[in-house]
Specification:
Layout: E1 5-11, E2 17-23, H1 24-39, E3 46-49, E4 52-56, E5 70-76, H2 84-95, E6 99-105, H3 111-121, E7 124-127, H4 132-136, E8 141-142, H5 144-149, E9 154-158, E10 161-165, H6 168-178, E11 186-191, H7 195-206, E12 210-217, H8 220-230, E13 238-242, H9 248-254, E14 257-260, E15 285-288, H10 297-304, E16 308-310, H11 313-328, H12 339-347
Parallel strand pairs: 5-6, 5-7, 8-10, 11-12, 11-14, 12-13, 14-15, 15-16
Antiparallel strand pairs: 1-2, 3-4, 7-9, 9-10
């Protein structure tokens, strides 16, 4: 006999109402399996959802999971590439906090079940591709930046309400400060027109950390589509240019902060670069959101031209520690990680099938 399908509505932070359907049996299995992990003590070997292994523990666990342990998760699809579990579980252990962080590979059709599980007994979550936009619709409250970008990367509970925000800008600012960059009156150029470009561009404008902002892209249509909403934030001039166009030389000559939000140069395509080295000049800081490899061709050529450079690894760390603060109320000191340790997390990653 076919099981009945429930229909639910969730009131969203922006006043909209989301409708969806889920199979009650699937939802109960999801909830029971996740909370089963939550209440187990040491010695657990694995937990699966829909036959997908999401976490492994050996016999020599460095911390115990008890009935009082609070659970935080990563919602994505896939999640096998993420080093967030290593970062957060190390921070929990170092600070003696009763939390555990687990990756959940959740398909888009099952996201609502995962959000229900979070509401029932988790402390929060990180959200990654492809759920950053969809997860926002389940939030009761969202930050101003997330309302503008239409995305969240952090979920947390406050007074029984599910809240969402985006911590990428905090990570970005602290990574650049570590490179010796001082914000103030920058003419900023962002390479790319995707979600990271939108988030960092909106943050720079909201926080008034630039004098001008230019989106540099290969598609005028896509660049214009991003510039349109960004131009409505405050009074800072926002425009775009096409890479290789006659006006791009002058724009890059004035640029004091260049931000790469494209995937060009990411492993394994390490010989690629989004920008010719002729555009670099001393006095320019170049930030590449890519962290694997540690030094992309873009960063290598920028450094050779006398630019300050920074990759995306410290951004990843600091945005994670900001999420950590939302979940725990504790500021985790960044010095419990050094760059060599973070790099070992990346280098030890072995691609797996989902």
């Amino acid at each position: 006999m076919k099981r009945a399908v429930s229909r639910e509505k969730i009131k969203c932070g922006n006043g909209a109402t989301t409708k969806y359907e889920y199979d009650e049996k699937t939802f109960r299995l999801f909830l029971v399996q996740v909370l089963f992990f939550y209440h187990m003590d040491t010695g657990i070997t694995y937990i699966t959802i829909n036959h997908v292994t999401i976490i492994h523990f050996g016999q020599n666990m460095e911390f115990s999971v008890t009935g009082r342990t609070k659970t935080v998760c990563l919602l994505g699809y896939p999640v096998a590439h993420s080093i967030s579990p290593q970062i957060h579980n190390r921070a929990f252990r170092e600070l003696g906090l009763p939390y555990v962080y687990i990756p959940l590979s959740v398909s888009p059709k099952n996201l609502h079940s995962a959000i229900f599980t979070l509401r029932e007994g988790m402390a929060g979550a990180n959200v990654t591709i492809p759920h950053k936009e969809a997860a926002l619709r389940f939030c009761d409250e969202v930050s101003e930046l997330s309302m503008i970008t239409g995305t969240v990367n952090t979920l947390y509970m406050r007074d029984g309400r599910l809240c969402g925000t985006t911590t990428d800008p905090i990570g970005f600012y602290r990574a650049l400060e570590a490179a010796g960059h001082v914000f103030g009156g920058d003419d900023v150029v962002i390479l790319g027109n995707g979600g990271t470009a939108r988030t960092l561009g909106a943050a720079l404008l909201l926080d008034k950390k630039c004098r001008s902002l230019t989106i540099a892209a290969r598609s005028a249509q896509k660049a214009a589509a991003l510039v349109s909403p960004l131009g409505e934030i405050g009074t800072i001039p926002v425009g775009y240019c096409l890479l290789g166009s006659p006006d791009s030389k002058d724009i890059f000559a004035r640029c004091s902060l260049l931000i790469n939000c494209t995937s060009a140069g990411m492993r394994p395509d390490v010989d690629n670069t989004p920008l010719d080295k002729s555009f670099f000049h001393p006095g320019m800081t170049v930030f590449d959101a890519i962290y694997n490899p540690a030094v992309t061709r873009l960063l290598r050529e920028a450094a050779e031209a006398g630019c300050k450079t920074q990759n995306g690894l410290l951004m990843l760390l600091h945005q994670g520690l900001e999420s950590f603060r939302y979940w725990t109320g504790v500021d985790a000191p960044a010095d419990i990680f050094d760059e060599a340790l973070l790099r070992s997390f990346v280098d030890n990653y072995t691609p797996e099938t989902q």
